Amino acid sequence: MNTASEPREIVRQQWNFSAEGSTEELEDYRVDLPGVIELELVVTPDISGGDAHASLAEMRVA
């Protein structure tokens, strides 16, 4: 039986790139989410609504 519920936020991370040229950020989260059937990642390049670019090189789920 599928008992899926409404999506909920598990982790939120906000990171600002510095003017000195930071171009990379690495995050490692470990969570116990039994019964999860869907995982969504949202990347917002500029929370102020400006013109920015973001990319994801790798995401591992085990």
Summarize this, please?
This protein is mostly loops.
Report on the architecture of this protein.
- By secondary structure, the protein is largely without helices or strands.
- It has a domain at 30-61.
- The chain has no helices and no strands.
Characteristic terms for this protein:
62 residues; elongated; little secondary structure
Architecture blueprint of SSEs:
Elements: no helix or strand
Total strands: the figure is: 0
Shape: elongated
How is the biggest beta sheet arranged? none
In terms of quaternary structure, the protein is: single chain
Ranges where pLDDT stays below 50 over 5 or more residues in a row are none
Our measurement of the CA-to-CA distance between the termini, rounded to an integer number of angstroms, reads 23 Å
Mean of all residue-level pLDDT scores? 80
The radius of gyration is: 15 Å
Count of alpha/pi helices: 0
How big a fraction of the residues is strand? under 5%
Name the structural class.
little secondary structure
